[in-house]
Amino acid sequence: MDDRPTGWRTRIPRERARPRWVRESPVSWQLAVLTVCFGGFMSQLDASIVTLTYPSLEREFGERLAAVQWVSLVYMLVTAAVLVAVGHVSDVLGRKLVYLHGFGLFALSSAACSLAPDLTTLVCFRGVQALGAAMLAGNSVALVSLGAPREKLRTALGMQAGGQALGLAVGPTLGGVLVSTVGWRWVFWINVPVGVLATLLGRYLLPRTVERAGGARFDLRGTVWLAVASAALLGGVSVFSGTPLPGWSGVVLLAVSAAAFRGFARREARAPEPLVPLSLLGDRRVGWGLVGALAGYLVLFGPLVLVPLVLTRHGESEMRAGLLLGALPAAFALASNLQEHLLPRRWDGRRRALTGAVLSMAGLLGLAFATPVDRWLICWLAVLGLGLGLFTPSNNETLMRAVPRELSGTGGGLVNTARALGTALGIAVVTLTLELGDGRGAGSVLPPLPVLTLAAAAALAGAATLRAGR
């Protein structure tokens, strides 16, 4: 039987099957998940490593920081704009196919970034690199959900979340070493061999797409509406995160986003083949699961950005601040991979996610009273990481079980869009804290304003867990 797409998809090549020995291996699903972890690792590594190049880019290209920041801003905006559309295309054409081409595009554009002769060229290639990253991120959760047995789904999603956490932990240290030794261009060159290796591994270890979404017509109008809405929302939030745009532009972008989301909803309600079926978003488990994903990454990125800033302001070295902060992503990775051993096996995903939300609240409260010289600081960071490591895979498991298998790419794109918005909100909270002078607080590493905001996010995540389980 020919499983190739039809209609507008007929010229797309067929996905190649895995070798027989891989398909029949009892660890085939683990090999597939580890391959996907490369994508999660690289996307988070790239997000956290590039900011280390800012001073070098300012000196080499003679540009101001306001211009250099577009190296990160364009990456974030393009990724947010196309994530859901990429997930939908993957459901139609094949998740393995789009994922492998995404890694190839990511590697090629990384090489182009490393050779950029000026800042404008670098920003343009970063936009292309973001498209490749979206092709990875939009399929990572879907490939894990489809490649792992249903009874192993939470474990598999934990491995994928652990790979992302590892990228966050390694990024700042690796970036500092590369920039200070061989130069900023190697921050991009390092993606090339990893991309080539991951593409080869994916060719032989990732499963082919079995269930595909139907549809011979692509919902271009819906894609444009959603792209504008997502990019404007993330851009509006980023205005309050220190990006070089006037404050009034943030209000305008948020208004544009609200109008575009309304246009998207009206379009999808009457489109014969919608980009995102509204029935999918109407499912309580999906809707509240997306709220939980947003809240979880808001809680994660607030301390990741704020704690090292506060520590260095109190005289700690960047090296020691980085080592202390490493306890957070390290505990995140540990809990997400070993939660089957940390909690009773009979517990369902809702109870596990709720436990993670409660632990996250405890870690935040501990950080609210910890000082930069407190020996318990690393412990509270670890508690926060453990809570998020328990919450994230369990929340995603509940969400993805509610998504039809033929729409798993669309579901994965929605998850990663929610994560991107949570990340931007976390950074915005930090920036607002510093601008208001609250960053000095009473000497604690998490001053009152971010504690209240992050605690509210953790509570929201717990509420989302309870609502999704009903």
From TrEMBL:
<dbReference type="Pfam" id="PF07690">
    <property type="entry name" value="MFS_1"/>
</dbReference>
<dbReference type="InterPro" id="IPR036259">
    <property type="entry name" value="MFS_trans_sf"/>
</dbReference>
<feature type="transmembrane region" description="Helical">
    <location>
        <begin position="21"/>
        <end position="45"/>
    </location>
</feature>
<feature type="transmembrane region" description="Helical">
    <location>
        <begin position="186"/>
        <end position="206"/>
    </location>
</feature>
<keyword id="KW-0813">Transport</keyword>
<feature type="transmembrane region" description="Helical">
    <location>
        <begin position="286"/>
        <end position="309"/>
    </location>
</feature>
<protein>
    <submittedName>
        <fullName>MFS transporter</fullName>
    </submittedName>
</protein>
<keyword id="KW-1003">Cell membrane</keyword>
<feature type="transmembrane region" description="Helical">
    <location>
        <begin position="161"/>
        <end position="180"/>
    </location>
</feature>
<keyword id="KW-0472">Membrane</keyword>
<feature type="transmembrane region" description="Helical">
    <location>
        <begin position="218"/>
        <end position="241"/>
    </location>
</feature>
<feature type="transmembrane region" description="Helical">
    <location>
        <begin position="351"/>
        <end position="369"/>
    </location>
</feature>
<feature type="transmembrane region" description="Helical">
    <location>
        <begin position="98"/>
        <end position="117"/>
    </location>
</feature>
<feature type="transmembrane region" description="Helical">
    <location>
        <begin position="65"/>
        <end position="86"/>
    </location>
</feature>
<keyword id="KW-1133">Transmembrane helix</keyword>
<feature type="transmembrane region" description="Helical">
    <location>
        <begin position="375"/>
        <end position="392"/>
    </location>
</feature>
<feature type="domain" description="Major facilitator superfamily (MFS) profile">
    <location>
        <begin position="32"/>
        <end position="470"/>
    </location>
</feature>
<keyword id="KW-0812">Transmembrane</keyword>
<feature type="transmembrane region" description="Helical">
    <location>
        <begin position="446"/>
        <end position="466"/>
    </location>
</feature>
<keyword id="KW-0046">Antibiotic resistance</keyword>
<dbReference type="InterPro" id="IPR011701">
    <property type="entry name" value="MFS"/>
</dbReference>
<dbReference type="InterPro" id="IPR020846">
    <property type="entry name" value="MFS_dom"/>
</dbReference>
<feature type="transmembrane region" description="Helical">
    <location>
        <begin position="129"/>
        <end position="149"/>
    </location>
</feature>
<feature type="transmembrane region" description="Helical">
    <location>
        <begin position="413"/>
        <end position="434"/>
    </location>
</feature>
